[in-house]
Amino acid sequence: MNNKSMNNVNHLLLLLLFFVVTVVSQGHAPFSIVKEKVTHLHFFYQERLTGDNPTAVLAAKPKDTRVDPSNLLPFGAAYVLEAPLTEGQDPNSKVVGKAQGLGVSADQDTTIVVFMVDYGFTSGEFSGSSFSVMSRNPLLETDRELAIVGGRGKFRMARGFATLHTNYMNITSGFFTVEYHVVLFHYE
Ligand SMILES: *[C@@H]1O[C@H](CO)[C@@H](O)[C@H](O)[C@H]1NC(C)=O
């Protein structure tokens, strides 16, 4: 690089620095952009696939005669979900929120669902806030992890992860209880 272009680079760097300082010093953001918080959440997801109010319903399935009719999750099936989140493992324990969204069967070979789900809370410190999951969810693995990509309310700009452990599973009744440990980085 010659002297002139070095000078140009220096100018550019100075301008950039000025811009960064200006943005950081303006206190007009609707949330604190500098104070990141870390929140841990613990709750249980209660799945009930049978009965009068199933927590997941088949909304679309592939139009393909090769699909085995006994397979509830053929490649291409889409389920709409609304499931209670409880404080304890007991399905009758206090409801603290609900999971709402879509689970799509998106693997040609095994049972892997991709979750696009909003986890909203209705009690406690985070009542009215929710975080958003967009992640693969291999349902049949006892332990798995979901990616958290955003949030609302107190969970604005959230990102993080949830580790899942299936505590109870009855394939016949379609009753499942899944324990969630969540780590969230957010700004409110
Ligand atoms: C699983 O669910 C079926 C159908 O509701 C029930 O008959 C059976 O006792 C349950 N199994 C266990 C281990 O709870």
From TrEMBL:
Subunit structure: Homodimer.
Function: Dirigent proteins impart stereoselectivity on the phenoxy radical-coupling reaction, yielding optically active lignans from two molecules of coniferyl alcohol in the biosynthesis of lignans, flavonolignans, and alkaloids and thus plays a central role in plant secondary metabolism.
Domain of life per record: Eukaryota
Subcellular location: Secreted, Extracellular space, Apoplast
Signal peptide: 1-25
Keywords: Apoplast, Secreted, Signal
BP GO annotations: phenylpropanoid biosynthetic process
Annotated protein name in UniProt: Dirigent protein
Gene Ontology cellular component annotations, sorted alphabetically: apoplast
Keyword tRNA processing: no
Matching Pfam families: Dirigent
Organism: Dioscorea cayennensis subsp. rotundata (White Guinea yam)
InterPro entries named among the record's database cross-references: Allene_oxi_cyc_Dirigent, Dirigent
Similarity comment: Belongs to the plant dirigent protein family.
